[in-house]
Structure formats: structure tokens, C-alpha cells
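Two proteins were folded this term; both appear here.
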Amino acid sequence: MDTSEKTEAYFAEEHHFKKAIAVLRDLVLKTDLAETYKWNFPTYTINKKNVLAICKFKNHFGIWFFNGVFLSDPEEILENAQEGKTQAMRHWKFFSESEIDQLKVSAYINEAIENQKKGIELPRSPKSKVTSVAIPPELENAFKKQPKTKSSFEKLSPYKQKEYVEYIANAKREKTKVSRLEKILPMITAGKGLNDIYR
């Protein structure tokens, strides 16, 4: 499924908050935000920057504001999405559709959009360096047969190494692992990253 199909499926799924999240979606779609689907949630962006996501869970639903820490929050309603883990993201939780005050929610959404347009966001902290990657046995065996490929792999950035490792490790069937290996070994030898074509 592409992102639009995944989004439609998310909102169409039978769930006790189905009507409630549809209300939130309607409010968001009245803005300039583009609708996409990331991390298993409908996510809304402007200039390809994440602004908010609509989420539903067993006991609550709500909006994640990716840079919610910068919202003025006049209702004092926003919570840290994951205390101790998330720095900028803030969550507005609802427990029933009747709690949605459309004017207030729209005000928060519009403020989040304006902040993003102004570039108000938490600077990214440098990613902790990946010093070593656990190489799957299939890749290790291929490297033993092709030392040049192993040498090229070691010259790749840790991030690119990790992409290749996960690509093989995430294949569930042996046949898939074999076909993926056939695809990536020439790329590694050429010093290319798995997703360089998309960067």
C-alpha cells in the first residue's frame, strides 16, 4: 500500500475513536499541511517538515506536535510525548470526542504551522556515532568469499553499513536474503549506500 492507502485504512479501521480522529483530520485538512503516513500514523507536513501526527490508542487519541515545546499552550494541555526520551514533541490527549474544542484545536494547529514556517524547531543533536555493526552471518560469509567487498563495506559510513545490515537481517525467508545479497554486493563493492539513489 502507498502512503495515501495506509492513511485511508487508518481512518477507516473500526475503532472506538474512529469518529473522533476523523474530526481531528477534518480540522487538519483545512490547513496548508500535506497528509502522509509515517511511523504507522497519519502525519502532516509543510515544506516536507513534520508538523503533527494524529494518533489513536486503546484508551485515548490525540495529536502529536513534533515541535510542540515551542507552542504557547494557553490551555496548559500539552504533555511530553515520552518523558525522558522526547525533547520537542508534545501530545494533546483526548479521551472522548466531546473533549474536542474545534476552535482551540485549530488555534494550536495553526500556531504549529506558523512556527514551522518560521523554522522554529529544536536543533538536531548529533547522532551518537555507530562504532560497530553486528553483521548477519549471510553477509559475513559473502565477505569471506569477496574480500574486496568487505573492504568497501568497511569504508562506508556506519549509517550506511547499518542500512545494509538491517536490509539483510529483516528478510524473513532464506530465499529473500539470497536475492537481497545478490542485489547489494555489487553496490557495496562500488562504494554505494543502499538508499543513495533516494538521497
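Next, the second protein.
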Amino acid sequence: MISRDEALTIARQWAAAGQPGPTPEVDLREFDLGYVAWRVIPAPPPTDGPPVPPPSTGYPRAVIDGQTGEVSQWPSLPWQTVAEKYAQYRAAEGRFPPDVRQVLDKAGWFPGRDRTASVNLWMVRFADELAGLDCPPVARAALVEFGGLRLPQFGRRGHLGGGFTSYIHPTLGGVVTEAARAFAEEYDNPVYPLGNNEDGPSELVVDAQGRVFMLHWADDFFVGPDVDSAIVKLIRGGDLSEASDRDW
């Protein structure tokens, strides 16, 4: 267990990294899983003129893990909010493999991510295109959590970005639903737009059971039995089975 004094030392090292001059002062707050730290902005010297804004604002926060001492950087939010988000982050460990989790983190995903307002606006904007397509709860939940993310894919040589990138709605650009409607009719399985993929390009759709499919000009493919599995597959790449196989 990392003591408060040890956490304070780590926090000062974090605050001083890349900063010329003396070590900045830091403040520290303890919570169940560790410590939240941030740089203390010195008050400007008094002047006779109008108030002067601080030299910089929005300093990031750091979380020092209470077990390992590992430091992670977080946005400039109240320390209670950072502690809550860190607890969500830790609770999600194991949900995705480390390589996929790294891609998701870099793309802007985090546990508890909520894009409800963006999804609502997207549904209004494309109401005509989406008319007649039922949005099951699993589809809405996926759009709220992952909507707007750009997910690069590992190529065959293991290089990130060497494959086909996926874009999860709501994104810039329009929504194509003809393939989703044709898929629903052919397989008697209604689906809802989830995103698109550069291969083809093709459409990503999800059904009421959470199964994800890729509707490509060459064929319809099964991506995963649930959204999380599909996210892993889309990032890692690899062969997809044809939807006509009905293994799903």
C-alpha cells in the first residue's frame, strides 16, 4: 500500500516532469483506490491595475494508484469526479484485452462514457433515413457508449492503422440504411445502424440480441455475438464468417 508521503513524492515527480525551475507545489486527496494530485497554481502578486488572469488554467490531474503507485493522467476536473472515473476505469479492467483497451483509450473511450445528447441529435438529424427502423436498447446503449469513436485496426503485420478503420455512429456524414433493410428482410432479423468500416466501404449493424454484422458489397458477414466482442474483432482484424452460415 502506498503511503501518503510516498504518494506525495510521486506526485511531485509527476508535476515536475518537463517543467523547468523548482518543483511545483502539489495538492493531494486520498480516496479508496489511491490519491488524486494536481499542481497548485500560485496566486499572482497584487497589483494596482485590473486583475490579471492566472498564467495558465486547466492543469491536468494525476491519479496515483494506492496499490502499485502507478500514475495516470486525467482531465482538469474536480478531484471527486476524477476519483469516480478512476473507479469506473478500474472496474472495467478485463472487459477488453490490453491491446484493444489501449486503442479504445486512445480513441477517447472510457468506462461510463455517455454521448446521449449526441445520439439524440443524430437520430433527429437522420430521422428520414432511420424511419421504420426500430432502435433496440442494446443498439442505443452501444451508440451512447461508443458513438463518435474512430477505431483503427491492426494490419496483418501487427501495425495499428494498417487495416480498415471503423467509425461508430454518430459520425460526420450520412447514414445508409438500404443494406440494413435488405438484411432484415433476407434473414428475418431487424438490425439498426451502428457505424461503418473502410473495407468496401461497408455498414456495421446490430440486432436486438446485440449481434453485430458487417454489410459489405461482396457479402454480409458476422462480426461478433455482442458489441464488446465485435469491437475486439474490428480492432484486431481477421477473417469474418459469412452471415449466410447462420452460425450466429
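The radius of gyration is 23 Å. The mean pLDDT is 90. These notes refer to the second protein only.
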